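Predict structure. Chain length: 306.
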Amino acid sequence: MPSDVSEESARAMKSGMVAIIGRPNVGKSTLLNALLKEKIAIVSDKPQTTRTRILGVVHHPEAQIVLLDTPGLHKPQHQLNKRMVRTALETLREADMAYVVVDATAPPGAADRLVIEQVRESIAASGIPVFLLINKVDVVNKSRVLPLIESYRTMLPWAEVVPLSALTGLNVDRLLDLTVKVLPEGEPLYGEDVVTDQTMRALAADLVREKILLHTRQEVPYAVAVEIEQFVEEGKLARIAASVLVERESQKAIVIGKHGERLKEIGTEARIEMERLFGMKVFLQIWVKVREAWREDEQTLTELGY
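Prediction complete.
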């Protein structure tokens, strides 16, 4: 019987939340940015860069994919780390499906097995689809990828196994298409203009911390937090005052650098990226403060949004 409704318009819209799970430093945040084609998550070569759940929305022609980047799963040493792991596992339990991201440059290790076991326990009741994403295949010989897939294949009943490179974009579009196929039918959860639920204050704090991670070494990155004390918009100008928290005077000296040069460089790079992201001029001031053992202080962690 003829119909006025085309196959395209009759096709049901899909919508759902996808948790991005993995051990630290496997490229979860780089993947989020690649899928969104927009930088909303900071990245560095330091483990535990992501400390909170970061939401990003992909507006696909056939679906709305709500991506939930999470802190790396690991054995926590501080109250901060315990909160990070709890955030990741709670996000996984809320999701409609999950990506488990592993690193193609190394065989499965104890940390990867821990992640997969935690995923297994978390999805036991829901039975949501789980994709295995083997990231960073651009830096390994192709002959190594198939044996790596085989070593992971029996660890979980994967819905899909996708070798990819978040950095170069290899197979990222394919991943989106495969994701759409398994998402549930449903109306969009966010408006068409929404890319993230991150506030400008949160993005500003993370961008300052990202530049600190890029310019410091040793123990400093793990002992640093950034608090935005002032964010005032005056037309096309944002006035931002940020406090950098460290745990020791020696760490403060490292962040500031000789004659304040390192802090000036950190501030300049953060300001330039804020201006690109916010679409306005930014006047940025940064102070460095010592707050001993802030990673163990529950009140401070709550104030910082962890």
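Summary: Confidence is low (pLDDT under 50) at residues 1-10.
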